[in-house]
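Quarterly update from the structural biology core.
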Amino acid sequence: MFVRCVALAAFVGLFIADRTSGQSAPPRRGRTQSLAEPPKRSRPPVWSVDVLDAFFPDARTALVGPRPDYGRVADAGTLPGAGKNPGGSPAARPQPHGDVATATWSQFVDAETIETEIKRLAQAVTLGVTAPGPFKGGGYQACRRQFSVLAVLFAVSGEYDGSVRWQNAAPALRDAFARAAKNLKVGSDQTYSEAVARKQDLEALVRGERPQLGAAERKAAWGQVSDRPPLMQRMNAANQERLSKWLANEREFTNNREEVRHEAQIIAMLADVIGREGFENWDDETYAGYAKQLRTAAGEVSAAVGTNNYTQARQALDRASKACADCHEGYRG
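Predicted structure, tokenized:
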């Protein structure tokens, strides 16, 4: 350490001497300095071996990892992967009941959850959209729910504040699935054909291809992405059919921790979506409060998975269920 300090001091002294010697001194009275005379400079020092050995010939060869991109994200809390605990399990960070305009998507849902949900819905669509008869007989209703959630997932992916799969194609996919979901209020030959086209888009996407759907704005107009009822149905399935079962006791929680995390993050994401501008009642203070309570409680369930805290997860789920029940008493659809 001492040798490095000595070397650094010598380097600074050399720099100052060089800068000073490069300035022309005022000529003495009665003497004119020749313009052609080269400036006098100090001789470079001759470093000993022990000083030279204290420094790397090229410091870049000793650096580890990628160079930081300081212009991209200033707040480490919004970096992709932030919020994951040391064990690797993402733990969604509960947020205060603030304005959704200041929130980032990674606070509610991580990229892995988005990708997994898209893949699962792609499989469900492939199994459900098989023939016109079953589709018209009621299959279109399940397809509408699936397409509505897919439209939201692609909308979130397009705006995501980190790296998420299929992000470049997401805005166009968002618009395509949003349009198909709105048309699927009835089962007909036309809506079946559109459902088949969207199924093919999903299959191509999972294979690693990019569907040819044109361009679209990255920022979503949330009132046009999805109707509220299909999203409420997805949240209800997550709460009543899955989380309630997996949090019935500590053993179930331990055996299904990753699924608990997944479903909790889906609820937190959708609770945030239904409180955004354009959705019915979004500007109603009471309704917005219920949506934020649900979002926060679901985030706490996800965080409890990261710390393997069953009691915290169970209590947070109870708060989420209460927010849903209180909301349903005054709002429907």
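Residues 1-17, 19-35, 68-101 have pLDDT under 50 and may be disordered.
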